[in-house]
Amino acid sequence: MSRKFTPKVVTANDLREGCVIYMTETGSWSMHHHEAELIEDEAIAELRLLKALGQGDRIVGAYLADAKPGLKGPEPIHFREVFRTRGPSNYAHGKQEAANV
Fold first, then answer.
1. What is the pLDDT of residues 73-87, one digit of tens each?
2. CA dihedral for 63, 83, 23, 6, sign (positive or negative)
3. Which of 56, 67, 76, 85 is exposed most, by the fewest CB atoms within 10 A?
């Protein structure tokens, strides 16, 4: 018996900026996890990942990350993905600086 598919988001790193980004429903990229497309079909998830992998001039390290529906959009499940939503941890700038406002 096969396991139930866990919803996913496509995530990668922006090649120029180095920040974590997420693929949206329109195929664009966002720095905000809650704006990512929550993919609930395994075949569609694979197709979205292939689309991302074809953007080697824009992104690096694309993969599917487990997520769950949330009030404002997808929420990460694994602590690694929660950590990635916060941005770099070695200095306060970008997402971390904005969170301290």
1. 999 999 999 989 887
2. positive
3. 56
Find the helix or strand (DSSP H, E) in which 42 lies. helix 42-53
Residue 71 scores a pLDDT above 60: yes
Is residue 43 scored above 80 in pLDDT? yes
Point out which residues pair with 29 in neighbouring strands. 23
- Report the candidate in 86, 46, 40, 47 with the shortest Cα–Cα distance to residue 67: 40
Give the predicted TM-score (pTM) of the model. Answer: 0.84
Q: How many Å apart are CA 92 and CA 38, to the nearest integer?
A: 29
Angle (CA) 6 81 67, round 5°: 25
Q: What is the pLDDT of residue 86?
A: 84
Separation between Cα atoms, residue 25 and residue 40, nearest integer Å: 12
